[in-house]
Amino acid sequence: MAELQYSTQALNVLNRFHGTHYVVFVEGEDDVPFWAALFEKAGEADVAFLPVGGAKELDKLMSKILAEDARIVVARDSDYSAFMSSRCLHSRVVYTYGYAIENTMYCPFAVNRAIRKACRDTRDRLALIQAFFDEFCLQSKELLVFDMANARFGRGVTVMGKSCRGFLKGPHSTALSRTKVSAHIRAIRPKFTFDEVSMSRQLCRNDHRTLRHKIKGHFLTHALLNVVRMELRQARGKSSFPHEALYHSLVDACAVCGQDCTEWDTTKAAIGGAVRSLCL
Hints:
Rossmann fold; 2 domains; four-stranded parallel sheet; 4 strands; 56% helix
């Protein structure tokens, strides 16, 4: 991207070009409305959000922050960085609370509101949604452990992949197949040592966040779409609800939510710390 060709001196005045107080770099276009909504909720609206086209490009910008004190902010997915010693702890690098933006977007309260809108009713489905996440995440726990081990120790194994579709009981199911999950784990287990798996399991156990926050956001998507479609079918007799509709329904959900939660408190504090750091 063009922004990455700038010197640190140019980055330091890039906000003037955009007519804003400061610039926040994000991974891709889908991340812009998500982070813009969160920064605005935190009271920081005079911001330019620039997508760079990938995590590796963000790494380059983070290096400029660390080595040359570039006066910019990077906002990015946490991925499994919470379990890695390489996680950047600079105040001008803001991470999602969960694995990715989807983990925030898929808040049960937000999903409940989105389904109500899609179904054109006022039925409260919060208990159903929470039960779905509880069951799905519990079924995914062992896959999560191996996926963490794969990331931490660089084994290059496909564990969870980009979608849960291949692990579901059926194409329209909201639950994982225990048989498919077990078979996959048996197939990949020889690629890891006992200590690697044990360490990853302990790290996962010690992390205070819910399983819904630790599991890859994209892995949750297809099953969640099936939940929405199931409710649509029951309420309106149709089940058409594409992935794009889910994104548009939930991308700014955290910003309009009135619930008190640790996730928002943590994110708000991180945004505030980034802004204060720019003023030093």
